[in-house]
Specification:
Length: about 160
């Protein structure tokens, strides 16, 4: 089982975050696969839209906090480079020439919230829950969320765009 599954039908590419046992928390493999898929689909003339969703009962719980301590120790430069690569994903989402839809089923927390906010549209099921998780794990974390919220606020979309109604 891979951390990201992909299917294309009738011009719509479906990307499914596929770690349901971890509420689809990002793994390094998932982030890499998601970035590669979005780059490729952005240039695919047979694809008109991309839908991102999560397998099981969650959209994306953000970073997999439980596996973070087990990852190899990194120096400052390696950590900065890793963050730079990770934060390229929201930029790709915001600039790709396709409509990208987040189909949110269950929790979208932390970087998962940032992922949903970076999409052009968000469709939320009754089970959808949105939240930041950064402070609870001691991160300033972002995944583009601060930029997205600030941009929405400047364009008068803030409360209306994120309202649960």
């Amino acid at each position: 089982m891979t951390d990201l599954s992909e299917t294309t039908e009738d011009g719509i590419a479906w990307l499914t975050l596929n770690r349901p046992d971890r509420l689809n928390a990002f793994s390094p493999a998932m982030l890499l696969a998601l970035g590669e898929a979005l780059q490729r689909l952005g240039g695919d003339a047979s694809v008109g839209a991309v839908v991102i969703t999560g397998a099981g009962r969650g959209f994306c719980a953000g970073g997999d906090v439980k596996t973070m301590p087990a990852r190899s120790p990194q120096g400052f430069e390696e950590r900065v480079e890793g963050l730079r690569r990770m934060h390229q994903l929201p930029v790709v989402l915001r600039t790709m020439p396709k409509v990208v839809i987040a189909m949110v089923n269950g929790p979208a927390v932390g970087a998962g919230l940032g992922l949903a906010m970076a999409c052009d549209l968000r469709i939320a099921g009754h089970s959808a829950r949105f939240g930041t998780g950064f402070a609870g794990v001691g991160y300033s974390g972002d995944f583009g969320g601060s930029w997205t919220l600030n941009t929405a606020r400047r364009h008068g979309e803030g409360a209306r765009a994120l309202s649960p109604r």
